[in-house]
Design a protein that fits this description.
The chain has 107 residues and is an alpha+beta fold. It is built from three helices and five strands, in the order H-H-E-E-E-E-E-H. A three-stranded antiparallel β-sheet has the order 1-2-5. A two-stranded antiparallel sheet has the order 3-4. Helix 1 crosses helix 2. The longest helix has 20 residues.
Length: 107
Amino acid sequence: MSGKTVTRADLSEAVYQQVGLSRTESSALVETVLAEICGCLASGETVKLSSFGSFVVRSKGRRVGRNPKTGVEVAIEPRQVMVFKPSNVLKARINGMNGAGDHDDDE
């Protein structure tokens, strides 16, 4: 799956294939889940998905930045940003390990 972008349609198709709902119901389910996540993040809540990770909204304060071309200083206004923190289970899976921890299984 290297280089492929997973779309809403792909997620809906996966739900259809694995859960057995109709394609319409699968699409509606995916849309509902994504809308709930978006709504929670928009209201400043943290969204934690077990064995996957957390979406966290952080506040960034006002700061001074520089235009890299001209070197001119520019004020960057305060804003909210969303960050994703993967769980240890997801990190291990990405790195090809089966376990969830950072310990050796040889013990």
